[in-house]
User: Which sequence fits this backbone?
């Protein structure tokens, strides 16, 4: 067995400061982090679960961990993660993901938020933790995450998250909450492109785009530059047709110079037919992309949904994140980051043809497979 097994991953977290006083450290931070990551991969959801995992695997863990005082108690795990600096932890996490997803042209990075619903503390009047994550659809990994400030929202968290990321040659997709002039400018300043959805938070801009496309579609884009793409999906009695129109002919928009890098407007029409019932919805976007490659724009919009389907869904269904009651100090945010480390590792493994839950079960049963998941080369 490789006694250095977890060190390839944990070397990225060497700069993480131990929040405990030296005289109270019976267990090394390295051992605590390793047991927690391994435990969460194998199904642990609480600090008691992590302790139980450690005790159950004690003899095996001793082959590559020091464990001078045995397995830490659940209280020790809880205290350490409650006091661990989440910003420093996130910087270490970003160092790791930067190596997982090397900068390359054509990256699609989706930004979206998710509340850990049971992390609220009613007695302490502490709001639930809301995490804003960056999901790389190209590599299917979480690139980074930040928690929103108390009594704040995603508008304040998104710029902090973007600042931590390398956006060069990437397309950044954000839902309506992130459709802000400062955010658009930040993406451009960081050498990326944006695709931002319009909704009621930009009522005037949304209405202008809506009226423009209604008129353009009525007159079939007469004397106007535009591109068109269409996709059809179906199955189990459902047929969905997505039609996209993009135009770089935007001189009509008087405030275009207020939006850094603005090059195109986009309209997506989704027509759903389910057992004879038909519904039609249109959504509108602004983008720094020139819009001429309509197929690529449509793929980017579909790719944004990956953060819901592949990240949030996995965290709730496979990791039961919404049911987590961990809430003391920074523990909820830091444990959320551990789950994303586990998810990244499991998604990167291609040796087992199974879903996330199946891989977690196999990790708990098979030490060799667990080590393979932990030691994948970047």
Assistant:
């Amino acid at each position: 067995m490789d006694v250095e097994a977890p060190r390839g991953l944990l070397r990225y977290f060497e700069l993480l400061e131990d929040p405990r006083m030296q005289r109270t450290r019976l267990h090394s931070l390295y051992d605590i982090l390793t047991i927690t990551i391994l435990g969460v991969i194998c199904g642990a959801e609480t600090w008691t679960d992590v302790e139980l995992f450690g005790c159950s695997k004690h003899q095996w863990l001793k082959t590559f961990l020091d464990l001078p005082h045995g397995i830490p108690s659940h209280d020790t795990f809880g205290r350490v993660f409650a006091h661990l600096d989440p910003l420093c932890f996130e910087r270490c996490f970003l160092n790791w993901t930067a190596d997982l997803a090397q900068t390359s042209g054509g990256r699609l990075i989706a930004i979206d938020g998710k509340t850990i619903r049971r992390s609220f503390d009613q007695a302490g009047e502490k709001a639930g933790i809301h995490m804003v994550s960056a999901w790389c659809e190209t590599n299917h990994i979480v690139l980074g995450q930040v928690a929103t400030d108390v009594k704040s929202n995603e508008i304040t968290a998104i710029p902090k998250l973007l600042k931590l990321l390398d956006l060069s040659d990437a397309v950044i997709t954000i839902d309506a909450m992130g459709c802000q002039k400062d955010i658009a400018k930040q993406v451009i300043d960081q050498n990326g492109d944006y695709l931002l959805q319009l909704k009621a938070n930009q009522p005037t801009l949304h209405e202008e785009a809506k009226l423009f496309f209604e008129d353009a579609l009525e007159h079939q884009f007469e004397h106007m530059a535009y591109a068109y793409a269409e996709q059809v999906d179906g199955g189990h009695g459902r047929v969905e047709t997505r039609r996209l129109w993009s135009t770089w002919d935007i001189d009509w928009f008087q405030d275009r110079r207020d939006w850094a890098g603005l090059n195109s407007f986009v309209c997506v029409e989704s027509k759903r037919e389910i057992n004879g019932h038909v519904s039609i919805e249109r959504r509108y976007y602004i983008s720094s992309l020139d819009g001429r490659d309509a197929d690529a724009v449509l793929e980017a919009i579909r790719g944004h949904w990956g953060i819901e389907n592949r990240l949030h869904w996995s965290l709730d269904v496979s990791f039961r994140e919404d049911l987590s009651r961990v809430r003391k100090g920074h523990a909820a945010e830091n444990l959320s980051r551990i789950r994303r480390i586990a998810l990244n590792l499991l998604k990167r493994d291609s040796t087992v043809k199974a879903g996330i839950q199946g891989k977690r079960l196999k990790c708990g049963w098979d030490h060799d497979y667990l080590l393979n998941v932990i030691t994948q080369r970047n």
Observations:
- The two ends are 20 Å apart (CA to CA).
